[in-house]
Amino acid sequence: MISATHVAPHVALYDLHPPLDDFRSEVLHGLMQPQKFFSPKFLYDKRGAELFDAICTLDEYYLTRTEMAILRTHASEIAELIGDGALIEFGSGSSQKIRILLDAMPQLPTYVALDISKQHLQESCLDLVAAYPGLETIAICTDYTQPIALPKIPHLQAKHKVGFFPGSSIGNLEPNEAVKFLRNAATLLQPKGSLLIGVDLKKSKEILEPAYNDAKGISADFALNILVRMNRELNADFNLNQFRYDAFYNPIGRIEMYIVSLADQVVHLDGTEISFKKDETLRTEYSYKYSTEEFQDLARSAGFVSQHVWTDAAQLFSVHYLSLV
Ligand SMILES: C[S@@+](CC[C@H](N)C(=O)[O-])C[C@H]1O[C@@H](n2cnc3c(N)ncnc32)[C@H](O)[C@@H]1O
Questions:
Q1: Pocket around ligand 1 at a 6 A CB cut-off
Q2: Where are the domains positioned within the chain?
Q3: pLDDT per position as a tens digit, 39-56
Q4: Hey, which of 18, 83, 170, 286 has its CA 20 to 30 A from 27?
């Protein structure tokens, strides 16, 4: 494992960021498929992270406020389950939800934040230690869909490791990828680790669709921002006026999000030509929804057993506490 940069007295940053070449080759691979697609992990450059934070405050986006309310309501019960373990957050973003847990566990010594967006990760961890002085914070810039090795540091050796994966980000992975992610997480958290994970529940499309396609157009800006990122970082020439955003609920159990071409057109990316037909779609994200039982089955197939499930009164969202058998 590479060594850390100490960006503040209690913040160590390990940079395992995938190089620009990976972004270019993964994006080109996706754009060459019959159904063009991107991995949602590319949506979070600095602007993407800001837009995602703005989405979290929208009336239509019930997910963030509902999950935070569940965490607040059950914080002391969750704190008891975690004990003096080390918390490891996958996709820590602005590190806001973790504060609910930290407020309930002032004794917690170590927090590990994993995120692919390095600048946002670093800034969020600095904000966090300013609010929680003394909390040993380890920031690791990495892709959590790949196997991850934690740094060999004493804080993490003999601890009960508890993963935290909020935001229903598990829903962005296809079910087979979700099982793979959970198996990787199990390897990282073993021998007796646990995982606290937020999972969005199935519900009517009248609630779901506006959450992913809001009236102010921020979800659209968030998706279309990847075209801006490719223009800037990959020497591409996407014309933003020639694309729109769309999101709908597929009754197989997922929201599907797309960028739609408004015309027949050719785009260039680092010298490679990419053709779009009018109305052709480019998939940016799925967001799978699970009943409690469906998610417990998925977790079981990755070696986790369910210890607790908390939901809100309206049955919009679930938070599961899973443990390794
Ligand atoms: C939907 S946001 C969730 C942020 C926060 N955990 C929450 O629940 O509000 C997803 C976060 O995960 C990060 N992310 C997305 N895909 C990732 C990946 N494959 N590896 C590491 N981080 C990833 C993004 O940079 C972003 O900060």
A1: 41, 44, 49, 52, 91-93, 97, 114-117, 143-145, 166-167, 169
A2: 5-18+62-203+290-324, 39-54+205-288
A3: 999 999 999 999 999 999
A4: 170
d(CA 325, CA 322): 9
CA of 114 to the centre of ligand 1 (A): 8
Cross-strand pairs, 196: 164, 321
Residues 6+ apart with CB under 8 A from 140: 13, 14, 16, 112, 113, 114, 115, 148, 150, 151
How far is ligand 1, taken at its centre, from the CA of residue 92, in Å? 6
Angle between helical axes of 62-73 and 97-104 (0-180°, round to 10): 10
DSSP codes joined into one string, 14-35: EE-PPPHHHHHHHHHHHHTSSS
**260 Cα–ligand 1 center, Å:** 24
Tokens 């053709």 locate to: 275
Tens of pLDDT along 249-298?
A: 999 999 999 999 999 999 999 999 999 999 999 999 999 999 999 999 99
Higher-confidence residue of 152 and 47: namely 47
Asked: is 5-18+62-203+290-324 a CATH 3.40.50.150 domain? The reply is: yes
Q: How many A from CA of 142 to the centre of ligand 1?
A: 11
